Amino acid sequence: MVTIEDVKKAQRNIRGTAERTPLIFSESLSKKTGAEIYLKLDTLQPTGSFKIRGAANAVARLSEEERKNGIVTASTGNFGRALSYAGKQAGVPVTVCLSRLVPQNKVDAVRELGATVEICGNTQDDAMARAAELVETQQMKMISPFDDADVIAGQGTIGLEILEDLPDTDMAVIALSGGGLIAGTALALKHEKPDIGVTGVSTRQCPAMYESLKAGHPVDVPEHESVADSLGGGIGLENRYSFAMVRDLVGAENIVLLAEDEIKEGMRALHEAENIVAEGGGAVGVAALLSGKIKNEDIQGKKIVCHISGGNVAEDVFAKIVTA
After folding, report:
1. Phi, psi (rounded to 5 degrees) for 139
2. Measuring CA to CA, which residue among 148, 150, 156 is closest to residue 4?
3. Section 32-47 average pLDDT
4. Cβ-contact 181, 155 below 8 angstroms
5. Which pLDDT tens digit goes with each residue over 304-318?
6. Of the CATH numbers 3.40.50.12780, 3.40.50.1100, 3.30.870.10, 3.30.2310.40, which one belongs to the domain with range 4-49+150-322?
7. Class of CATH domain 52-148
8. Distance between CA atoms of residues 190 and 240, nearest Å
């Protein structure tokens, strides 16, 4: 399993590729919720999302043979972009498999970084199947966006930074899809502060981790289009790391599921309160607080950090949402 020492090593590995991002206080959102709300802005990463942390660490950990053969991933967009960026910096060939649900702006961003792009089927699972084929036929190294020890360790650097900036954080609210982000972040947070609360937030359109936790093992769930497109996809029936870590560090009882209108309200609130452009998956923490699905008595007067995971949303889509 991933350890806190892995996370601390990742913090060193990613310097020069990923940024140490700011934690800011939001007076407006604090007034609305009755809590002290802080925003961890990974929208300011070079590729516009937190994914660069895990990607940079995974690339730094490659062997010479793996660098020569190249790497492949299946992505909902942001990890593909991050891996392409890190691979380009290191001179490593990158192939990214994407489904047709990935927005065009994210597809274009991956291509612009020089990666080979393959569009594969209508779901993230289809893209993952194609990536697995390339591992078999071309001896490429597979790097999962969420179920990879080096990726999880890289994402854990978020937790280290949060507690460096706000040691008395009471709760962190983190987006949840495949679980790599919340697994790494929760590991770092709870190692330093065991009683800290960690809440995961998913879209109702594809709550794969939540349903898997309820079942007691990884399960497939139908994948539907969502404004939080980065939260789509399954967790893999052969999941090695993220399922167990989310089960042990978070638990199904600490997961919130949001409807599409609730996610859009989170995007609008961030823009109105702080002039932050966040994609759907990046706004779910704020959306969960505003929806009331995190109980008021659990947050009143407490210091709550919302991780704003990414801002890679098409301009026309964002404009339509915030002006609705």
Report:
1. 55, 30
2. 156
3. 97
4. yes
5. 999 999 999 999 999
6. 3.40.50.1100
7. alpha beta
8. 21
